[in-house]
Design goal:
CATH topology: Beta-Lactamase
Low-confidence stretches: none
Distance between the termini: 28 Å
Radius of gyration: 14 Å
Mean pLDDT: 93
Shape: globular
Oligomer: single chain
Largest sheet: 6 strands, antiparallel
CATH architecture: 2-Layer Sandwich
C-alpha cells in the first residue's frame, strides 16, 4: 500500500455512508482504491439474481463487459464462491473475461450483506503479473466491509 491503510479505510467508509449520488460515491471509492494500491483499473459492481452490472469504475476506459451473467468470469466465480478470487496471471485462468488486452492480474472481492448474500464486488485489474500482495488482499478485504453503505 502506498499510504496509510487505516486512513484510507476511514475515508472510504465516509464516502460510502455519505449523502449524494450513489454512482459518484462509488466512483470516488474506486479511485481511492486504485490510487492507493497503484492499480491500473478498479470497478465496483452490483450483483443481481442473474446479472452483474458495473456501478462505477476508474482507470483508462469503461469495461468491455459492463453487464454480464452472474455465472461468468472471475466476478461470477467470486459471487458463486462468496469468497475473493485472486488470479496473479489471468493468461492461465479460463474464467477470465477479457476486458482490457493488457490485464495480467485480477482480484475480485465480494461485498456481503450481514446475512452473507453477495451485494456487489470490487474488481481490481493490473497490467503486472503477481500484482497482488498479501497486504493488498487484506486491504481489499477490509474495503468490502466498509462499503456496504452503497447498498443501503
Amino acid at each position: 500500500m502506498r499510504s496509510n491503510a487505516d486512513e484510507t479505510i476511514n475515508r472510504i467508509r465516509e464516502i460510502a455512508y455519505s449523502e449524494g449520488d450513489r454512482r459518484a460515491r462509488a466512483a470516488a471509492i474506486a479511485e481511492l482504491i486504485r490510487v492507493v494500491g497503484d492499480h491500473r483499473w478498479v470497478g465496483l459492481y452490483d450483483v443481481g439474481p442473474s446479472l452483474i452490472a458495473a456501478i462505477a469504475w476508474t482507470g483508462l476506459k469503461a469495461p468491455s463487459h459492463p453487464t454480464f451473467p452472474v455465472n461468468q468470469g472471475l466476478n461470477g466465480a467470486a459471487v458463486t464462491a462468496c469468497a475473493p478470487i485472486v488470479v496473479q496471471d489471468v493468461r492461465n485462468d479460463s474464467r477470465y473475461l477479457t476486458t482490457f488486452g493488457s490485464t495480467l492480474a485480477e482480484a475480485i472481492f465480494p461485498v456481503l450483506s450481514p446475512t452473507g448474500q453477495v451485494l456487489g464486488t470490487i474488481d481490481v485489474e493490473s497490467d503486472r503479473v503477481n500484482a497482488f500482495s498479501a497486504e493488498d488482499e487484506a486491504f481489499l478485504s477490509r474495503c468490502t466491509t466498509v462499503i456496504a453503505g452503497l447498498w443501503d
